[in-house]
Here is the input.
Amino acid sequence: MSDREIIRPVREKEGTNVTFSPAVLEKIEKIKGRYPAGREKSALLPILHIAQEELGGYLSVDVMDYVASLLHIQPIEVYEVATFYTQYYLDPVGRHVIEVCRTGPCAICGGERISAYLAKKLNINPGETTSDGLFTLKEVECLGACGSAPVMQVNTQFYEFLTEEKIDQILEELRAQGNEDKPEKSKWIEKFF
Here is the structure.
């Protein structure tokens, strides 16, 4: 097994009661309404983003089961999607999830150097979270911006043409935000309306 392989262990139910607020449920119904009757599963991706953001920052088995019940699908259908896409977190993560592209074009343009620099600055390895819970560093597959490599995404914000100086500036801004609420424009629930 290579050191770059991602191991995503299966988790067990915690038995917590999971529910969206009435306001979020109303938005979920609007998203579901965009799809034909009987095709509610088509709303799975945006609803998982919202669930992750609104219900603790990651997708526990209980949260995934709740989403399945809202869409009238089997829980395994949610697990398959949540374990496939790197944007869904199955374990608790830091307030700011930094995803660095590790594919060819970014690597050629310095992506590996950027990832190593971030790891050194944050004193963590990819897949780990800082002791203050502020940052999680992840290496991910293509972020879809090969022409502006190296790139990274922090939560919903995208950063291109990265340099060590830009990384320092971004980290400084994120640290200054501390544990303030995310601006509305960077919340997933707002991205779908």
In short: Helices lie at 22-32, 44-54, 61-71, 75-84, 104-108, 111-122, 164-177, 188-191.
